[in-house]
Structures are given as C-alpha cells and as structure tokens.
Amino acid sequence: MYLKKYHIYFVGIGGIGMSGIAELLLNLGYTVSGSDLRRSDITERLSSLGGKVFYSHDAENIKGADVVVVSSAIGRDNPEVTAAREQNIPVIPRAEMLAEIMRLKYSIVVAGAHGKTSTTSMIASVLGEGNMDPTVVIGGKLNSIGTNALLGNGDFIVAEADESDGSFLKFKPSIAVVTNIDREHLDYYSGLDAIKKSFLQFIDSLPFYGLAVVCLDNEPLQELVPSFRKRFITYGTTSQADLQARRIEPVNGKTRFSVHMRRRHIGEINLGFPGLHNVRNSLAAVAVGMELGIPFPTIKKALETMAGVCRRLEKKGEAGGVVVVDDYGHHPTEIKATLQGIRQHWGDRRVVVVFQPHRYTRTRALFDDFTRAFYQCDELVVLPIYSAGEHPIEGVDSESLSEGIRAHGHKGVHYVPDSMEAVACLKRLLRDGDILITLGAGDVWKIGDEVLGELRKQERSSESR
Q1: 418-461 pLDDT tens trace
Q2: Nearest to 442 by CA among 350, 341, 326
Q3: Domain final position from 39, 67, 92
Q4: Catalytic machinery residues
Q5: By residue range, what is the domain housing residue 58?
C-alpha cells in the first residue's frame, strides 16, 4: 500500500492520547515531532523511538511540518497553532488523525463515559491471544507492553474513542463498543439528551456489515436501543442482555462468573480484577471476540491472564501493613465503582482515599454527585482541584466540596491545601491493615508513591534495629 511519509507535528505530544498516535506513526516510518511543556517518561520514550520533542510552545518548532495535530486541550491561540494557520499548514484534531490510521484496517472502537481504557485493553488481549496481532491505541499504559500503543501486523486495529468534544464521530468503525452513557463533559454537551444523541449518531455511522456492542445495564443505553438501525448485541448482568454474566462472586481477589449467550451457558471466567464494572468490561471483550470467530477458551485465557492497565485499580505496592492502590477514576460513577471493587477485593479492611478533583467545570457540573460518591471509604483526604489548563471558577473549590461531603454524612473528610500536607495527613491517619487509594486523573498518584516510599523506608529502618 502506498503511504507518502509526511512530517506530522503534535501540539501536546506528551498527552496519553496524543502519544499513542505519535508512536504508531513513528513505527510506520513517518517523521514525527511535537511539543509539550513537561518532560516525562512518555516524551522520553517518543524521543528514543526517533521523535523530536520540544519542551516549549514556539512558532519555530513547526518548521518543516506538513500537518499539525492538536488535542481538545489545546487552545486556538496556541503560538504553534497560530503559526500553522498563517502558513496554511492543515491543523486537525487528534481524532481525525486516528481515524485516518484506522482506515487502513478493520477497526474496533470503544466509546463510553467510563471503562473505555480497560475494555479496549481487554479486547486487545483477546485479539492478541487469538493470534490476530492487532494494532492498539488506548488511553493508558498496558502493563504487558509498558506503552499505550502497539503496531501489529494483523488486519485489526483496536482504539479508544474520546467523546469529550464530539470528535469521536469522525470514526467509522466496523465494530462500535459503547460501555455506558453518563452525565460527563458537560462543558461541551448541553445535557444528557445531547450526549445520547451523539452516541446514537456514532452507532448509526457503522457500515451495513458492522456491529454495535452495547451494555444493557446502563439506563441511557437502554433508552436508545429502540432507535438502533444497525446490527447490535447487548451485554450485562440483566437477564434481558444477549450476553449475560451470572453467579458473580469474588474469589481470592479475583471475580468469578459464568457467561451465557442468549441464555445458553458457554463457560466460566475467573477475572483477575475486582469490581462489577470490570465484569461488564470483560463481557464486551467476549462479545467482540465471538463476533470475530475467536473460540471461547481462547477468550477466557486472554481475560484470565492479562496484566491490566496502568492507573486502573493498580496495586503499587505494600509496606508497613498498608496496601497502596492507584486509580484514574475522577467521575462520581467511576469513584463508586472503584470503591465497590476495593471493598470486594479487600473486604472489611479500612479504606483511606486521597482524591484530587479534575477540572473546575466537572467539579461544578457534578458537585452534588461528588458529595455522595465516597460513602464506601473510611477516611477521605481531598486535594485542591487539578485544573488541566482551565481557569478557576468562583465558588468552585475543594474546600466547598469537602464541606459538601461532610454535610452529606461522611465523618472522615480532611481537606489539605497541597501534596505536602496530604502526605503529613496520611502519616497521621494510616495504620496497619489499611488500603490507601489515590483517585483522580491528575498527578495524585505521586502522593501514593511518596507515601509508599516513606513506609518502605520505615520498614527497612525497623528491620535494621
């Protein structure tokens, strides 16, 4: 196949979504460069693969570029974007570039408010175990390969869609997976009805031979089912789902359940991850695998042996009798699901949460939901809002959120003004047997790492006496 090798420039190349596409293009032989304000493991990896990374936004950086790719977080006044437009260099969103890559293969796209990364990684594992050698682009690092992108030699590509700005409608997949619909990204959408309309449009974009795989446990998706005009299969725990999980039970930190296709028992899965949400995610992978003709025993093996994804209920370590876990959850629905999974996995042990709210707009839009999201933890440490580039909104802050959570009956809420105070607070709170979980889409994981380091240091000190 003829592919002219363009020079592609990424503004914000260190982002988890942008970096995956950049890595794929590097592996395909394209010239790739880009900018990011912070040096990270991601930017270092791209440099090692042959990419050129600038650590500033400057008009000079785009010299020689044929196209400039931007994420939804990049403003129109960015100097590199401005320079590109002045020079008539095409400026395209991340989704459009990914959609172009996907045209080359049979595409499986995972969309939804929650669970996209975990579901995408499960599908990728199933295809890999089925010897289909897929290309993969996800929103988190796969622990098995240490990166968020993989260029395969097979005919399939598995990718995660970002619905935050509607750009996922640029995808024209062969299989569309929708994990759920929720009140999210309300800085872009006017409300839940607008979000549902967008997802229906996404499913309608399937070709005549395509398939929609949708979770029937999700009420907004239930409401859309009568409007589907393309072939679809439903999954979930409800008895009305085509693909159903039954007899779900936690066993030694795993989740065992039986799988039924249109009420016919097809096998058992012993999933290595806690939480009902992960059972649902795995059912989506089962549905995709079966559609592609992968035998159930192969699907089962893939799901039972996969290594998981960075920042998705990731156990970071244990020291001083404290288990440290990190999770990306930053929406009330995700937080509840994560804490339910923690309770399922570790039973009656005390759960201490460090939560970093993400974005002022999200905190304002979902304020009431956040105040009721933490009942399953014993102690809650709340950090200042991670802005993600947003300007502060008057009256929207973590102190008010902490007060709101207390007002709704939570008795163990602690607001801290910075990470240093968070670590000090945790030193006072933590005791032998606790589960410490850091929650949020920002850099809250650093606090978990620091506390784990301190606990290990104390352990070594005690052993040397």
Answers
A1: 999 999 999 999 999 999 999 998 899 999 999 999 888 887 77
A2: 326
A3: 92
A4: 116-117, 160
A5: 7-92
